[in-house]
Amino acid sequence: MGSFINNLHVRRKSVEVVKSQMSDIITRDAYLVKSGDNWVTIYPDNSDPFPELAQHLSFVLNTGVFATMVHGDDILLYTLYEDGVLTDEFNSNPLYFIEQLEEDDEIAPSDGSPDVLVKYALAGTSTAEIRETLDEIRMETSASEGLTSLCHLFGIDEACGRASLHYIKRGEVIQHRTLILVSPASPANR
Questions:
Q1: C-beta of residue 153 within 8 angstroms of C-beta of residue 121
Q2: Is residue 177 part of a domain?
Q3: What pairs with residue 111 in β-bridges?
Q4: Which residue, of 14, 21, 141, 182, is most buried by count of CB atoms within 10 Å of its CB?
């Protein structure tokens, strides 16, 4: 069985600011960590509405939020929300979840947009480099390796990018990083 990874990456906000906006939307405990000079990574519970959490945080924090998912190490997905609006998405294997494709079925492209992503990449990264990386990810045998490639492009700590809540709960730690627990607000305070 391959890797199963779900996490969110919030751009240019402090851990404290991100934490202050999470407790009203999560339904179970989550963790967050400073994961690079410009990123905070969130490890939400799988029962929380993953895309909605990314959308909400990008809106209330007025920033970009990547939601990334690796499913069984076979597929890498990401969505990017900016100010609450879905602005980009990527699916390394669009046919993965389709059991049977009819002749007239159309698959919506989700190739990723280097023009959108370039502002989140490390300084000096070109749109051509981003396109090449996305194309290489489609050819990867390991979706988690593809996620590592994205982390390198954006300056997200690799260990933080490849962690997920279920690994953290099993006791796997992210070296030299302090995880911060965020608990949901009580129903009376929502």
A1: yes
A2: yes
A3: 90
A4: 182
Determine the 3-state secondary structure of 11 from DSSP. Answer: strand
Q: Is 80 exposed, middle or buried (0-12, 13-18, 19+ CB in 10 A)?
A: buried
User: Structurally, how many domains does the chain consist of?
Assistant: 1
Give the range of the structural domain holding residue 29, as residue numbers without chain letter.
5-94+109-189
Residue 103, pLDDT score: 60
- Positions of the chain with pLDDT under 70: 1, 95, 97-109, 187-190
pTM above 0.90, yes or no: no
Rounded-to-integer distance, Cα 133 and Cα 114, Å: 10
Q: Kindly state whether residue 99 falls inside one of the protein's structural domains.
A: no
Look at residues 169, 166, 133, 180 and name the one whose alpha carbon lies nearest to residue 35.
Answer: 180
Q: What is the percent of the chain where pLDDT is above 70?
A: 88
In a domain, 21, yes or no: yes
Residue 94, pLDDT score: 76
> Is 144 part of a structural domain of the chain?
yes
